Amino acid sequence: MVGLGPKRQPSRKGSMADVPKNLLQEIENLENLFTVDAAKLKQITDHFVGELTAGLEKDGQNIPMNPTWVMGFPDGDEQGTFLALDMGGTNLRVCEITLTEEKGEFDIIQSKYRMPEELKTGTAEELWEYIADCLQQFIEYHHEEGDLTALPLGFTFSYPATQDYIDHGILQRWTKGFDISGVEGEDVVPQFQAALDARKLPIKLAALINDTTGTMIASAYTDQSMKIGCIFGTGCNAAYMENCGSIPKLKHMNLPDDMPMAINCEYGAFDNDHKVLPITKYDTIIDENSPRPGQQAFEKMIAGLYLGEIFRLVVVDLHENKNILFEGQDISKLRKPYTLDASFPAFIEEDPFENLQETHDMFREKLGINATKPELELCRRLAELIGTRAARLSACGVAAICKKKNIESCHVGADGSVFTKYPHFKARGAQALREILDWPKGKKDPVSILPSEDGSGVGAALIAALTLKRIKAGNTAGVRDPSKFDIWLK
């Protein structure tokens, strides 16, 4: 999600005094549809704990609970220069990160590249060629002299992948609207490395990670209270550190019970069975028309990719089927799926004017719709309801990890454009956590979700460093070919 713009504090809540009765009734209907009360949040969280546990027991569950072979937190003494590649849903970011001698300090240079829309439904070869081209541009720009020796790369690949090793990852399924052929069910590392080698780039992949794992490790680098990493952006997910003794599906590997293992939950797939989530007809339409129907049920209700589309579907329904919005106006621009991204409802929530003038102007300029004040009031309330539901549901995943691990107090590092830019998302999520975990009023929240911007890039570099560190110490668990790391360990 992009383009949310600068943060502004709204100075109004809107006045319903001039809203006709039929619109007021529809607002009430929408409130009933999108409001998630504390009792429902607790029910969802309890079911969430069960699905987290099931994913650790065996493969093939709703929540995959993927072991990452990231084994422990950084201590702040990691050093060296690393490349980090972050492939998200919207952008591709390349970083060169130097972990300095100063404890917990690093230097970073980075470049950002847009992921072309046509790439998202293209072929594997097109994907890896594009990424290799971006890496080549980065190296040629920042190292014109060409004296670069082989750098270890941490690759943040933010999609569900089965990892038997730290430098290996079989894509389970595409998410975030991607549907690239020739990648699902395949190990992405050889495909990626082949594209680099074909260009003779001095880069070797040391670690394949998920952005949530990277966010958790990067946050812990500067804050020892960090126990969980979350992403609330184009998609949603979390990672936390589990003991190997609590991961039954790894029992055959005879790892020490107390050895830590970062788990990439991939909990956007929570409740794919639709047992507890308060799914509306609009959520069902989004699911049925998505590249992967029946998957990522939780993500489709709270992630940035879908918030604008939920808003659009409701507005079109109220116009076409209930005849109470934009009567007699041409809404053809609104009929195109995903024509509105999350910045649209976010902008409406942040309109500081009592008469919603900025919202009125945006409807006219972007959609060719001349909305009345009462219609704008309904749209304002709808935006609040969609944003609030997303924030409150997002808290269930964090609360479930805390309950499962008996975490009474910690910091949670969060990244992603919805968390960092969507109005009131943090405050609404914090309020939901209080309700779910029954914290006493008037006291400081024992679990705080804090921003960890760009954590996945620094985290990828740190995880590459941690991998080299433990191989050097003789711990080669989850490393496919330890000899590959010799060039960096001499």
Automatic annotation (TrEMBL):
It comes from the Eukaryota. It catalyses: D-fructose + ATP = D-fructose 6-phosphate + ADP + H(+); a D-hexose + ATP = a D-hexose 6-phosphate + ADP + H(+). It holds the Pfam family Hexokinase_1. GO terms for cellular component: cytosol; mitochondrion. One of its GO terms (molecular function) is ATP binding. It is an enzyme of class 2 (transferase). GO terms for biological process: glucose metabolic process; glycolytic process; intracellular glucose homeostasis; mannose metabolic process. Pathway: Carbohydrate degradation; glycolysis; D-glyceraldehyde 3-phosphate and glycerone phosphate from D-glucose: step 1/4; Carbohydrate metabolism; hexose metabolism. Keywords: ATP-binding, Glycolysis, Kinase, Nucleotide-binding, Transferase. The keyword Ion transport does not apply. This is Phosphotransferase. The gene is hxk1.
